[in-house]
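Hey team,

Sharing the Response regulator transcription factor run so nobody has to redo it. Sequence (217 residues) first:
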Amino acid sequence: MEQPTEHKEIVFLLADDHSIVRQGMALLIDEILPDATVYQTSSLQKIEETVMEKGIDIAIIDAHFPDGNSLHILSLLKNANPDLKILIFSGLEEELHALKFIKAGANGYLSKLSEEEDVKQAVSDMVNKGEYFSETVRKLLIEFVYNPNLINPLRSLTARELQIAEMYADGNGNLEIANALDIKQNTVSTIKKNIFNKLKVDNIVELIEIINTHHKL
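Structure output:
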């Protein structure tokens, strides 16, 4: 593991609604950078305030909080402090969620299932390189170059297809959808077939999983 730059004073923000996660990360940071300053918060709403008031260099942020989702505040944080480096530390699967957070402004994505050595490497890389990408994320970034829809397969759908996909995910059947949209049932069936083909799914359960993962995060 590359060691952080010596004598470099770094100000961290640890944002997670679970105290044990924050305390564990704080101990690890202290082991790597004993002189670092570490602020903590369990609230999504407090993140932007702390970033602006405390001169945060590196923010290590969970994806989900009881009061919201951090994906939607990353651009605000970057606007408040363009030099801020953000590492998402989440239990959400890397393969499904990492690219979305990176595209939204995160400088790295780390799974909470990672080994301790990987967590140390991530912190070290954030300090020395300003970014951290696991092997999994690196592969996803390469795939994304050739398949932009990888970040969100729902983008391949038309507005009408997405509308109907959401209605299926909410438990509606062909007849209910047809009546609600004032279209024929065979039209709904045709659109359903197009949706399944574009998303490469075979049933409603798989469709619901994609909707929940990429549209309702």
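The longest helix spans residues 185-199.

Ping me if you want the raw files.
A.
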